[in-house]
C-alpha cells in the first residue's frame, strides 16, 4: 500500500462500483503520489496489484487511484507534488497496470470521496481515531522531537487525525468487497468495516447498504536497505546507495549492489537474523526470478558474495529494463497520461455517484 500521512506508506484498499455486481469482487487500491518508487515499493505493492489485475475473474472489477488528498496531510511543495502525481501514474502504467483492465485515476478528480468522508465523519467516534496506530505514532514522534514535556494533539493537523475516515470513504464510495493489504495494514480496513456497520445500523438496518469489505492479504516482500539491512529500503534515507530506484540504470544498480553490506562468513546461506545483508540479496534475487528464496540459496553453496551480487545485479536489470524504458517514454507523453486519468475519473465518478445518490436519500439530503 498505501494512503497514510507517512510519505512512503502505501495503502491498498479501494475499489469501484456504485452499481450492484452479481458475483464478482470489487477491489480497490491506492498509492500516495511520491514520484519515483524504489524496489521495495514495487515488490511490496505494485507487483501485487498487477498480479491481482491479471488474475482477476471476468466479473471482478479493479480500481487503482493516486491519492493526492492524503498526501496533503504532510507539507508539500506544490510544483513537486504536481510532478510526482504524474510520475506515479506513468510508473503504474509502465510496470503493468492496464487501463483497459483496471480503472486508474487521481483521487482528487472525484469529489464523491470528500462528500462521503464528511458524512462518515459525522458518525465516527473520536475515540476510534485516537486509537489509530499512525496517529499515535506521529504524536509520539512529535513528542520525542520536542524538548518540552508539554506536547499534545494540537501540534498535529486535523487532516492527519481524520484521514482514516477519508480512507473509509475511498473504499465505501465504490462499495468495495475486498481490500488488498499487507498483514501490518489491517487496522484501516477494520475501521472501515466499523464505519460501514455504523452507517448500516443507523440508516439501513435491514438491507445493509454498505458491504463490510474483507481483507485480502497480499504477499509483502520486505526489501531491506542495502547499507543497513536492519532497516527497510526507504526513500527517506540520506544515503542514495541504500536503495534501488525503479529508474536506475544498470551501471547504477550494479554499483549499489556491489557496495551492499553483507558479512565475512564463508559461503552463502539464507539466515535473516544472523546474516541480514546476505539474506536481503537472496530475497531480492528470488523476487526477481519468482523462485523460493531457500531454493535460490542452495544454488550458492560453495560460492561467495561476488557471484551472488553479480547475479542479483543482472536479475534486477532484467526485471527493470523494459518497464524503465516505458516509464521514460510515458512521462514525456502528458497528453496520453491526461487522457488515461480523465477516462479513469469518469468511470470512477459514474460508479460512486450512484452510491452517493442513495446515501443522500438515506440520510435525508434528497
Q: What's a quick, concise take on this entry?
A:
This is Tryptophan--tRNA ligase, mitochondrial. With 366 residues, the chain is mainly α.
Task: Produce the secondary structure layout.
Blueprint: E1 26-31, H1 39-54, E2 61-66, H2 68-71, H3 78-94, E3 103-106, H4 112-121, H5 126-130, H6 133-145, H7 158-172, E4 178-181, H8 187-203, E5 214-217, H9 250-258, H10 276-289, H11 293-299, H12 305-330, H13 334-363
Parallel strand pairs: 1-2, 2-3, 4-5
Give keywords.
single chain, 366 residues, mainly alpha, 3-stranded parallel β-sheet, two-stranded parallel sheet, globular, disordered N terminus
Structure report:
There is one protein chain. This protein is mainly alpha-helical and 366 residues long. The chain is 50% helix and 7% strand. The protein contains 13 helices and 5 strands. It has helices at 39-54, 68-71, 78-94, 112-121, 126-130, 133-145, 158-172, 187-203, 250-258, 276-289, 293-299, 305-330, 334-363, and strands spanning 26-31, 61-66, 103-106, 178-181, 214-217. The strands form 2 sheets. The chain has a 3-stranded parallel beta sheet with strand order 1-2-3. α1 links the parallel β1 (26-31) and β2. α3 (78-94) packs across α12. The longest helix is centred in the last third of the chain and has 30 residues, at 334-363. It is globular and about 70 Å long. Residues 3-21 have low confidence and may be disordered.
